[in-house]
Specification:
Length: 425
Amino acid sequence: MEAPLAERIRPQRLEDYISQLHLVGDNGSLTLQIAHGIIPSMIFWGSPGTGKTTLAQIIAKQSNRPFYELSAINSGVAAIRDVIEKAKLSGGLFTAKNPILFIDEIHRFSKSQQDSLLAAVEKGWITLIGATTENPSFEVIPALLSRCQVYILNPFSKEDLLALLQRAIKEDKIISTKKIKLKETEALLRLSGGDGRKLLNIFELVVNSSSEGQIVITNQKVLDLVQQNTVLYDKTGEQHYDIVSAFIKSIRGSDPNGAVYWLARMIEGGEDVKFIARRMLILSSEDIGNANPTAFILANNTFQAVATIGYPESRILLSQCAVYLATSPKSNASYMAISEAQALVKQTGDLSVPIHLRNAPTKLMKELGYGEEYQYSHSYENNFSEQEYLPDEIKNIAFYKPGNNARENEMRTFLKNRWKDKYGY
């Protein structure tokens, strides 16, 4: 049986790897590490189809190391110990023989399974490369995470995806024998969602479904075939990113009915309860924020509770939280405030801290006037002193703009009373 297109054109060398230039470009972290032959244990964090497995295989090949691969879905502690025993026979710390153990979906490993890796990683019997679609800060135990470098793999850009298509057309032993014209690519790119493997799966499906002499790829042809072959998404579980997107947008749009429907779809699909709860926790701050701070408390408690309870009872907690968030007043003011502040920091660089706000732990700093003119707020009426807290270059800029809701209107009034016209509240 012929391997899928994505497997057939999987790159074998770093220079053939598409995307992730921050890691594999000329000055990328992994490029330099491979060149020096010192490969630390690491975690690749990125959405499906961003090249995590491929990158691990290339690292092993170019560093001339044995390569073992396990999947957290079907591997237990016994399988891990078997690989570690083989690795212990093959060399010492950071030698050319030091094997690489690649674990796909490492976030699915239990604490005890992750614990079984600790000694081998710490003593250098193996170099661990874990791949995860989930935030490793939540899903990888601290002891193991502290022994690994975490690298983020970004979804493929439009240019990356087009380059993948061109590679398939030119280099694949089957696709290259066909006459293919990429008349339209918008549907291919949109349906891929930045997932290179999904893009190639759809593309191969379209090509194999055509008996024409010249195969013309159009948006309509792609959409028609995908609708007839929905198993393409359900089979691999990649659809869950589309469903969780619909779930979050339903809550943001204050529709508890849409929220509960998409929640039911995720529950029936066996989605990880912590994944669902974590998304609601993020939304409670990003989309509700100070319009209703209790939403964050409820979402956090829900996350803690479902992690303990599990299915099937946790569905009730998830539903309660989703309905509460959907029916809560909304504000993205805090989210926009930090986004604008970060953008300004990138634009203006490291502006000096005003001297009256500086710390003065040494005699010299005190002599230089550090903190000398600072006005301690509690020494003033209403615990407030109208002093400057921003660098001179950006004073009077308001990052936080309260939303139009009851609670934040109170905040606006409070700020207006304190700062008068300074920030335009």
